[in-house]
């Protein structure tokens, strides 16, 4: 018999349980169904090409002033009916907004469109320029004068229509002369006709004599308007009176130019008797107090009494001789 050798028992090691790590569940994505690609119909192709060509041919309008988006949309809708002159009408509106206060520019633009459709506005002088040209040319505004009864809106329209025309003032004089000779119901439309004649070389300006008369009339109107505010001249006739040291008196038509008046007074070494206190020239003595009316009356009666005494003395001498 084989001998059984007793071997030491090997202790059994406990089996380690594997830890199960809970992982988040990944949601299943639904399978996307492939959309069937439907080829465009010939009619859809034609309409898309038509819209694209229409958008390409449509001019892009630019605004220099800070209009709101709502105002821009409304203006673009108003300008659909005028076609290629839309940008020029916007330019005209912006020019007028720099010269007068316009509360509702959208309504004002609608009125301009209506005037353009009725032939009352000439836009040939309002061609939009490139930005580079605008930077090179400094803005020079002509000072135009009006003698006719134009309101502020008409004046702003006339200035905008005559922008860039060298004989703008002569054209205004021609318009005003025509309005004085006959009744003109639409002066803006009449002005557009004069501008068209000027551009065609058919405009006949006023004669030099008429121009001189108009300039003289303007100066006279300004002089008469400044009489009330002038401290040197008489307010009833507009003349400035001088009294020289030898008692000689002279009067000249006042042009309300302070430098000229004081220079004349200094040249004559005279006192400006028609001027207010403080404006009588270099010979005025401001140290003397201003006399009241009562004091002036007393001085007047004293002078009359002295004169009467002198006359009585002369009469007495004549009788005695």
Break the fold down into its secondary structure elements and pairings.
Blueprint: H1 42-57, H2 69-78, H3 86-99, H4 105-117, H5 131-136, H6 152-161, H7 168-181, H8 187-199, H9 208-225, E1 239-244, E2 249-253, H10 258-268, E3 270-272, H11 293-320
Antiparallel strand pairs: 1-2, 1-3
Number of helices: 11
Q: Could you report the average pLDDT, rounded to the nearest whole number?
A: 75
Shape: elongated
- Rg measurement, Å: 46 Å
Give the % helix: 40-55%
Q: In this structure, how is the largest beta sheet organized?
A: 3 strands, antiparallel
Sequence of secondary-structure elements: HHHHHHHHHEEHEH
Protein structure class? mainly alpha
Number of strands: 3
Distance from N terminus to C terminus (CA atoms, Å) equals 212 Å
Enumerate the spans where pLDDT stays under 50 for 5 or more consecutive residues. Answer: 128-139
Strand content: under 5%
Task: Please state how the strands of the largest beta sheet are arranged side by side.
Answer: 2-1-3
What would your notes on this structure say?
The chain has helices at residues 42-57, 69-78, 86-99, 105-117, 131-136, 152-161, 168-181, 187-199, 208-225, 258-268, 293-320; strands spanning 239-244, 249-253, 270-272. It has 321 residues and is mainly α. The chain has a 3-stranded antiparallel beta sheet, with helices on one face. The chain starts with 41 loop residues before the first helix and ends with a helix. Residues 128-139 have low confidence and may be disordered.
